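Please fill in the sequence for the structure shown.

STRUCTURE ENCODING:
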């Protein structure tokens, strides 16, 4: 999506507004980067704009004018809007001069893990968790298929993290924020990271140690869901 000219932030508001909701791991990727950087810098970098996904807001014509893809997250800044968590993380890395690549080799490595995350890691995990927790009558065959795809992706990352502190090497980059989108919803996913994917578990601990780290359910609005939702 190209940047869209739309809105000027109100005076005194933080520089970034994030369209998000607590159950969205894709939004969490961005919220976590903005929150931890804000705490490190002693500045309020973002505010949430709650999106009522469970009551269909992302499917409304009004929301499609905000994001033609009908998705969360959307980042609003300087009268512009941008969707797709990977594109947003990349933009923030450049604008905030943090967690981005230092050279071409690192750029390629970060991009490789961002793409793996979007295609295989987050995508299967988000869909699996949605069916497992929020769908009314999920097809058990599809749920089982997605579980297998998740386990394959978890094994890939776990093997990689056996010899790397973070996805792209020795420090936290936007690839880690991307991969971290859904892992902290572990109860809803039904995975014991420590027992079955110990290197992912250790990496999650390193992410948790970022100043200002919060679980998605405290960082973003909308948890718990009102009774009857989902
Ligand atoms: N690849 C997108 C995925 C975004 C996505 O799937 N967002 C979900 C919430 S986590 C959504 O808004 N879905 C709306 C819908 O399917 O109607 C990204 O990384 O931003």
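FILLED IN BY: designer on duty
SEQUENCE:
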């Amino acid at each position: 999506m190209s940047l869209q000219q739309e809105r000027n932030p109100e005076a005194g508001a933080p520089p970034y507004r994030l369209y998000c909701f607590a159950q969205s791991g894709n939004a969490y990727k961005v919220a976590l980067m903005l929150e931890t950087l804000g705490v490190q810098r002693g500045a309020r970098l973002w505010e949430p704009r709650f999106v009522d996904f469970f009551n269909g807001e992302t499917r409304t014509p009004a929301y499609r004018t905000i994001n033609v893809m009908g998705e969360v997250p959307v980042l609003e800044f300087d009268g512009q809007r941008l969707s797709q968590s990977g594109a947003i993380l990349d933009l923030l890395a450049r604008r905030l001069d943090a967690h981005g690549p230092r050279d071409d080799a690192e750029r390629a490595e970060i991009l490789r893990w961002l793409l793996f995350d979007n295609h295989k890691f987050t995508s299967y995990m988000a869909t699996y968790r949605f069916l497992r927790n929020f769908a009314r009558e999920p097809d058990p065959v599809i749920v089982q298929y997605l579980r297998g795809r998740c386990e394959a992706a978890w094994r890939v990352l776990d093997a990689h993290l056996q010899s790397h502190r973070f996805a792209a090497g020795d420090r936290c980059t936007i690839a880690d924020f991307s991969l971290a989108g859904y892992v902290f919803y572990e109860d809803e996913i039904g995975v014991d990271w420590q027992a079955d994917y110990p290197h992912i578990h250790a990496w999650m601990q390193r992410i948790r140690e970022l100043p200002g780290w919060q679980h998605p359910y405290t960082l973003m609005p909308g948890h718990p869901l009102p009774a009857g939702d989902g």
